[in-house]
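Entry 14. Structure prediction run on the chain below.
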Amino acid sequence: MVVLSVSFGAIVALTVVRYVNHPLRKLLPGPPPTNYLLGNALQTRRSIATWQSTTDYPEPYLSWLNQYGSAVYYRELFNHTVMLSDPKALQHVLDIVMGEGLVSSEGAKHDAQRKMLNPHFTAAQVRGFVKVFEQLTTRCCATILEAAATSHTRLDMASGHPEALGAYQQLQLAPSPLLLIGMFSVPGFIHWPLPPLRRRRAAKNVLATVISDVIEHKLASVNPSSHDDNHQDLLDRILTDPTSTTNHDAVTHVMTFMTAGHETTSSSLAWVLVELAARPVVVARIRQEVHTLTSVSDHTTMSPLATWEGIHSLKYTLAVIQETMRLHSVFFQLMRRLTEQDDSVPLSDGSMLPLPKGTSINVLTSAMHLNPKSWTNPTEFTPERFMEDTPEWAADAALRQSKSHAFVYMPFSIGSKNCIGHRFAIAELLVIVATFVQNFDFALTDKANVRHLYNAMTVVPANLEMTVSRAPQSVDE
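Output returned:
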């Protein structure tokens, strides 16, 4: 029995040593582990949990990038991770040049879902949504924001669906550092019978039930296929898609767009409002751009903000949105990728980086977007850097040897796993930002906390509380 115990202990010890002493540890620079067993897991997860209070966003990743370079090794529990920010390496990893040499964990399931939904997010399809965006945004201005501007009282915007709101807020609660370690480092951890995870699963079930009820109501009240293209919303199009055969499929897709779609766009909008609240000059320039667009229209048919051509003439407004997405990456990292076989990744300096099978590839866009080797004055809010033929654009291009920012700026990822709704999101944000700024002023209250909070879905302002007032041009004289 003693011999067996000693042998078992030796096997465990050797296994731990094998995982801890990985060949990448000697091959690549990186931070020293803060714990022999956990590696850097406590360091990274504590930092993420305290972005909202004491830790600067997106530390420690930005410091690691600046100190160790474009390929950094670190370990979280038994996950041996390489943080890549080298543009040529990312071109390989993100399936642009080498196809499916490295695949992400969602695999065939992701590909099948994407194939079904792709037709709904082409440029031609998104054009049809712009009018819907404008109608809903105008309605929001005329009701919710107008009431906030005139009543000067706190408004409850979700009293109609308290159960759904409670479930959604449950999903947005910031996880503890230990939960973050499990969620990012332990396969299948989200299914463990822990109270916080049970509450999250229950919240998802509540949302699924609410969505299912909405679908049943829509099917019972009107046939979605009877709507013409100008009046079909996204749910109409999903329900009439021949490859989406069940209501369960529709619920799954709506849940996906609530988290990966709606939450992303709403978080980006929140950060835009934060930046605009501190920058009256930027607000004035957006208003002038919108005024120039709308003043040439006779409005006999529709507002130019309801047309694809109209919103895409708002070059400065688009640059403000892009710069906000650079400074405040709502997804601080892309979906991790795992090497399915030994691979060699090319780097920009001409060398090759060997990656053993099972290596986790992490792309920290939040750190890349603040990399001083890619962006001049990276922490400054400079929308002009996204406008061609400006000195700011030229300065950034010079840093990158005139190369595009395709692999250093990736708010929607890039390649075969890029965000399927990126056109949808940008069009929606253009309509909302232009319409909101045209009609209202937004100011932070004393209770606002605009540090970065990771809520297990996106990175949002920790507590965004604002006052709303009518913009000068919208006040009746």
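The domain at 107-334+364-474 is CATH 1.10.630.10 (Cytochrome p450).
Filed with the rest of this week's runs.
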